[in-house]
Amino acid sequence: MNPQAFSIIEPYYLIVDLEATCSKNMVLFPREEMEIIEIGAVLLEASSLEIVSSFETFVRPVRHPKLTPFCTELTTITQTQVDGAPGYKEALNRFQNWFRPFGSSHFCSWGEYDRHQFQRDCQRHHVGYPFVSKHLNLKTAYSEALGLSRKFGMAEAMQRINLPLEGTLHRGIDDARNMARIVQVLLGKTSELF
What is the pLDDT of residue 28? Predict the structure, then answer.
């Protein structure tokens, strides 16, 4: 195993998972029109590999304010939850107010989607991109750590290391927590699972 794939110099891994508006096979609207509807995140201390804090907020979409049945079924996020949520600017501000007091952190997500979605929504709402660190693609780091060329979805990656899924797949906060558990395993905190 190659733990160097996860090497960072910041004291925290800021592990983020987004859920966004969607339609089956992108029939009703293209990927470029997707909007964040949930930000889930955990701060994993790099030295102890302990989760020190977590954050979740729903976000009210504006371009496609009515969730598709496919989106609700996939994420379990309801129309009522997004209707009562803050808009993107306020949700992003709450998110930043949560993680910035911890100081330097390394933004991580499973794949590149979350980074691209933040960039799209920041541009759409005319707000600054919230991260100063480079992005760590956990999907790539996972494969590199295990010496594999193939990339895996998060659920399959968990199965490969005998780690049971906790919570609901495709819920931002649960997926962020599960990603943190993957990092913990790969960096040796719970290596007995191999």
Answer: 81
Burial of 127 (0-12, 13-18, 19+ CB in 10 A): middle
Residue 170 is a catalytic residue:
yes
Q: Tell whether pTM > 0.90.
A: yes
Name the residue among 194, 180, 103 with its Cα closest to residue 146. Answer: 194
Residue ranges making up the domain that contains 79: 3-188
Task: Characterize the bridge pairing of strands 105-109 and 136-137.
Answer: parallel
The total number of structural domains that make up the chain: 1
Catalytic residue selected from 10, 156, 170, 192? 170
CATH of the domain at 25: 3.30.420.10
Distance CA 38, CA 167 (A): 15
Establish whether 50 is a catalytic residue: no
